[in-house]
Amino acid sequence: MAEATSRTGPAPYAPVTLGEIKELAGVGRPTVSNWRRRFSRAALASAKDRRPPFPEPIGGSESKPLFDALEIADWLSLRPVPDTEPDGSGKVPTYGDRFRQGLKLRRLVTLKHHLGSTETLIAQALATLAMWGEGENLLPEYLPEGLREDYTAAGPEVRQAVSSLRYEIGSLGRAADAILGIDEDLELAKRLESDLVMDTVPREIVALVASLIGPNEGGPDQRSTISLCAGLGELLLGMDGGPTGRLRGHGELVAVEPDPLRRKLLAYRLLSHEMFTDVCPSPSDLDTPRWWGGAPGAEPWTFSTADIVLASPPYASGERERDEKGPLWWAQEAVRRLNPDGHAYAVVPTWTLTRTRGAAPAPTVDAREQLLAQGSVEAIVQLPRRIHPFRTGAEYALLVLRPPTYEASDQQVLLIDADRIAQRAGGRKWIGEVAQLVLAEGEPDPRDARSVSLRSSYPGGEQLLDSRSVLPAHRIVTAETGVDHFEETVTARRAAMAAMPQLRDWLAAMGIAKRRTPVRHRKLDQHVTAGQLKSLGGHRIKDADIGEAGLPVIGREEMAGELPVGQRRISPEALAAYSSAKITERGDVIVLAEQGVRCQVDEAGGCVLLSPVQGLRIAGYREFLVAVAKGEPVGPDALWMRPHALAQLLQSPRNQHRGSGSLVRRVSVRDMDLPQLSPEEIAELEAILTETERLRADVRRQLAALDHLAARIAAGVADGDLALRRR
């Protein structure tokens, strides 16, 4: 046995087993066994290693030894957690930090097995903190429903565990936050495996909203606040109380939460923060006269409007698209309850911003266009990908809202791509940059943010009220900054001349000059609506119906170069079962808009497109080919666009950067744009691109022949059938 470490007073923690070390440090059982073996006194002594040894057991048995908890914590503090970033103070998290956090929550985690329900334990623990907080000062009639019962049901073990947690953390409110999994350092709800943390607002979003609101002092100047869909109060309690003290709940704040369990836990949490705040089940309750916050006055009053309105609707996927009370309904409700000079902040899934109007009713699109048309949208912030620790496959946005204005038609909305800013800035620096942009305290980088008009001042101009996606990533597109396209192109031509001297005359004959007049751009959606382009959607075909004979199939693998075109095919008989499947024609442009944009021109036609691959057909191109085949004269103005020109323009950087999606980055084809060029310029561009494609095909054939030759020689030598000799 190791010598006991001298400590004054009784040991604050009970001894821990190897299994508890594993659980509290967040590692596997083999890791703990490896630590114990590699860093034993004997192993370190034989290697003449001066590092501290793994603590020796202080009791237990050979098969189940017990260790001093604080000795283990001290030893683990010497071991940083791999692949973690330093915190705000520059300290790298260690296994000791995890272990100490787990020790603080250990007693409550153990109680979960006795009570049999995580929600019951959390409710009883929060009820205990609530009664020790503001609940002690309330008359019985003002206590939230169920508080007295939950407090009574919490037995001595729960109260003792809560008391220890409060002592460890230092305050009732922070202990409640730890139990709900909201505290940054202590997340008991995770260790209890509670579903409550699944829908909490991410901390980065809370910090951003708090930065936009600014200090909301708890004195006479405190701004009134309504929190709709309050959840567990993340946004509500995220507001800074300012230098004069914490937020006051008596008559200044009110929350609305439809879910009964979250409503109860939110009321308990607020009391633990010494805030008595009404928590209503429905927004309509705000219009009922009463003495809000338990502060009777001469007459009861309503809490219909406020200076600040927060909304965090449940994170729901697209199946809620046709729900009349979807996320944007709550945004509308937030605007309706604003005071004239107030602001609202609504967190919504980004699918609410990308939906377009179709034949079926679209409440989401209607709500979005109403918010825009009435001038209530001040800014749309597309939040970074994977910002939610549990719902990593979803994306979210923050709407900064104001009361309806119905003013000038040239009103603009600030669009901010915080995902791009976060990738560039790293860490949480993006929060400050975004806040500065919204508050007009910084100059935006045109690649990150720009203002877009609600209505265009000229026909065909860009506007937000066009029933298309208003997601910043789909709208914020600018020319490449810091690039002199003329100089870069001339340099590229010189390099091509040096590499291919036989093409010097052709390359020199290219008419390249700087454009003197600005060029306008139009969305592909406008070209499709006008009938200039026809969109061909990819189809889903069963793998069993794809074979080696029939029409070529083009899917993700062919577009990515993983399979040659023609290797996968589908017979006409099998294709007959898919009546909506699209077959390409000569000149169709095939597009894969995932993880960037890849395009290729179908030179022969007769291919079947597999989702997510799409196709674009230039109207009039078939008639153009017929006229060419007959030898009829065809002028440059015969077509507004040519296939190779269309394919290359779609793959330009300005369209590549339009991607959105948390797991798979996709580019909306209809939100891509094309420059409006003269038919003569399009014809010249097509001629250059057609010739370059022919030359590239020749080079590819040469490379394929050389690759095949090298492979056959190596295979013959390897099998002993070939003998090589120098001639």
Q: Any descriptors?
A:
transferase; nine-stranded mixed beta sheet; disordered N terminus; SAM-dependent_MTases_sf; single chain; alpha/beta; Adenine-n6-DNA-methyltransferase TaqI, Chain A, domain 2; Rossmann fold
What are the SSEs and their pairings?
Blueprint: H1 18-25, H2 29-38, H3 41-46, E1 59-60, E2 65-66, H4 69-76, H5 95-115, H6 118-132, H7 147-153, H8 156-169, H9 172-179, H10 188-191, H11 203-213, E3 225-228, H12 234-238, E4 253-256, H13 260-272, E5 278-280, E6 306-311, H14 327-336, E7 338-349, H15 351-354, H16 363-373, E8 377-382, E9 396-401, E10 412-417, H17 418-425, H18 429-438, E11 449-453, H19 472-475, H20 485-499, H21 504-508, E12 521-523, H22 524-529, E13 533-536, E14 551-554, H23 556-559, E15 569-570, H24 572-575, E16 589-592, E17 598-601, E18 608-609, E19 614-618, H25 621-629, H26 643-650, H27 653-656, E20 673-675, H28 679-718
Parallel strand pairs: 3-4, 3-6, 4-5, 6-7, 8-10, 14-18
Antiparallel strand pairs: 1-2, 7-9, 8-9, 10-11, 12-20, 13-19, 14-15, 16-17, 16-19
Pfam families: N6_Mtase
Domain DNA methylase adenine-specific: 321-425
GO molecular function: methyltransferase activity
Can you offer a commentary on this structure?
GO terms for molecular function: methyltransferase activity. It holds the Pfam family N6_Mtase. Keywords: Methyltransferase, Transferase. This is SAM-dependent DNA methyltransferase. Among the domains are: 271 residues, Vaccinia Virus protein VP39 (Rossmann fold); 34 residues, no CATH class; 161 residues, DNA methylase specificity domains (Adenine-n6-DNA-methyltransferase TaqI, Chain A, domain 2, Alpha-Beta Complex), CATH 3.90.220. The chain is built from 28 helices and 20 strands. The strands form 5 sheets. The protein has a 9-stranded mixed β-sheet with strand order 5-4-3-6-7-9-8-10-11, with helices on both faces. A 4-stranded antiparallel β-sheet has the order 13-19-16-17. A 3-stranded mixed β-sheet has the order 15-14-18. It starts with 17 loop residues before the first helix and ends in a 9-residue tail after the last helix.
